[in-house]
Design brief:
single chain; alpha+beta; 7-stranded mixed sheet; 3-stranded antiparallel sheet; about 40% helix
Amino acid sequence: MAPTQPLDISYQTLYSELVQRSLDESFTSEFSSDGRFVAVEVKGKKYWYFDKPKSDGGGQDRSYVGPVDDPEITKRVEAFKDLKADIKGRRRLVSTLVREAYLPRPLALAGQVVEQLAKAGFFRMRGVLVGTVAYQCYSAILGRRLDAVAMQTGDADFAQFHEISVAIKDSIPPILQVLQEVDPTFREVPSQADSRVSTQFVSKETNFKVEFLTPNQWSDDQAGKPVHMPALGGASAFPLRFLDFLIHQPVRAVLLHGAGVPVLIPSPERYAVHKLIVGSRRKIDGDPSAKSSKDRLQAKSIIEAMVANRQHADLASAFVEAWDRGVRWKTEIRASIATYDEDFQTSLRTELAKGIREIGSNPEDYDLAQPPTGEGAETAE
C-alpha cells in the first residue's frame, strides 16, 4: 500500500487538546448556571438530563445530555461549575492546525451549518455527522494526511437512530429555523414519497444541501419512505440500509471551523468499510467526481492510513462484523474490492489477513487466504 504522510506529533497533541477544550466549551454554552444535572433511569440504563427553571416560573424544562456510562460526559457533568469557555485560545489552535499543519477546513457554509446544529443540540442528542464533511476530520484523528480530492463536497449529511430520536424525549428547535440562522435562503425540499415532510433542505443562494438520514431497520417496503424523527425539530429522515453499521459507536472529533466544532462522527474503520459497501452500490457514470468514485477513494485513503498506523486489528474487526452480517453484505464488499487496481486489492487482502489473525480469526473464512485470480475474481457472488 502507498505510504501516507504522518502529521508531526506536536500537531497531533494540539488537536487532542482542542478536542478536550471544545467539549468543555459545549457544556458551558448549552447549559445555564441556574440549572442542574440529574441522572434518570430509562429501561434499566441511566442517562444525564439537565433541568432548568421555565421562564414563566412554572416547573422545569428538561434537556437530554447523554449516557451516565459515557466517561467524557460524566466527567464534565461533575466538573460543570469549573468549566470556562476559551474561545480565543481555541481559535488559535484551529488556525495553527489549518495554516501550519495543513489540516482540512470545511467550506465556510458547511462549517456554519454543522456549528449551528451543534449549538441546537444535535450531537448532544447522539446525532452523527456522516459523509464527506465527516471525512474531513479523519486526517487529524488518524494523524496522517488523507487524499485531498476526496474532501470536496457541496452537501452535509446527518444521521440518527430512530429509536434514539424517540427515546430521548427532547428535540432541537425547528430545523428550518436553525438552518435559516446560517442562510435565510434555506428551504425545505418536499419528499418525493410524501410531499408533506422533508428530509432535505437546500440553500437557494448556493445550492448547498443538508440531508437527514436514519438506518432502515424495517422491511424493504420502507425503502425511500421518510421516517418521522421526534428529536429533529420537525424534520424527517431518509432510511438507508447499512447505515446502522456506520453510526454504531461513533467517536468524538472537532471540525476545524471557527473555534472548533465538537461533533460525533463514525469510527474511521467503520467509515472505511461502509464506503467499501456503498461504493459498489452507486452507479458509476464516468464522471470522476461521481459519488461512487469518491466513496472508494475515501475508503482507500483511510485504509492506507490505518495500515500505516498498524491499526490492522481495528480495521479487521469492522470488516469481519460487516462480512458476518450475511450474503448481501459479502456480495457488496467483494464487488467493491474488485473495482480497485490489482496492487491495492493484493495489499488490502494481505493487510486485512494480518488483522484478522490478530483478532483470533481465520483469513480463509473471509476470502483472504489467497488473492482471487482469473474469472472468479470478477464474478464472485
